[in-house]
Structure formats: C-alpha cells, structure tokens
What we know:
By secondary structure, the chain is α+β, with helices and mostly antiparallel strands. The protein is built from 4 helices and 10 strands.
Amino acid sequence: MLLHSSLVLALAASGLGPYRIGMQPAEVQAVKACAPYKPVASTGGLECPSFSIAGKPRNISFIFDPAAGLKKIQVWFYEGKDAAAAEVALDELITHATKEYGPLESHSLPPGTPVTAKALIAALPAGVATAKTQLKPRQNPPDKFVFASLIRDATHGWYVFLYVQPPR
Length: 168
C-alpha cells in the first residue's frame, strides 16, 4: 500500500493539484476541483473559471498534445487594465510559487535581487507596446517546469500567468 501511495503522490506532483501532465481531455473534465469546463477554440484545449489556487478561484487553461495528452497548464492570476490589481495578483502568485517551489528568480532582475511584484514591474521595459518579464523557481521540481509571466500590453492591459509544463 505504501508503494501505491507513493506512486499516486508522484503522479499528482507532475502537474498542478489534481491535474497531471499527460492526462487526456476527458480525464481533466472528470476532475471535480473545477467546473464548468469549456472548450477553447484557439488552442483546442479546455478552460475552467473556478479553480481554487492561492486562496481564490481563478481561470485555469489546459493545452493538449494529441499523442501525449496534457502538455501545459496555465493559471490566470490576473487579466485587466488595473495596474494596482495586477500588482496584487503578482504578489499572490509570488507568495504561492515561493510556498510551493521555494525561492524564485527572474532574468529581468540583477542576481541576488529579491523577486517582488514591485521589482518585476519596475523591470518591464518602458516605451514598448508589449513588455514581458518572467520568473521561475531557482530549482524547478524534477517532474515539471514551472514559470510565470507578467505582461503589460498598451492595448489590452495586464496579464499575470502561472504555467506548469513537462520538465525540460
């Protein structure tokens, strides 16, 4: 029984919450942690608006490979035009990621600089229509690649995303 429990934990760790890399669309839709699931025409994947992460319900998207199954999980921490709300969401993402994966780093910040929402926002290049910075755990788990993006778009506003993919 211990071996079975260890295997279940290892499989669960290779994704996010109850979602595992490699799941088929029907398996994702069978997970009760979120509902309702809806198809996403632009990616051929699925999304669900009410996945609880970091203390709030958030939109979660699933991208599939026809042969390998679930290949990318994307959690939408923020989408909108309010810079202050984007900063709060980025703080929530950083807190969650640090708790789950340990210290974070960003190539947009000088080595040794703490990864904070304020530092990442300040690191976005000025004067460009779309600016992006990313962060990730200093040491990614061996069974997945985790990273996050902060995007500022002059037309659409701010996006704060967390991604989970197969290991690189």
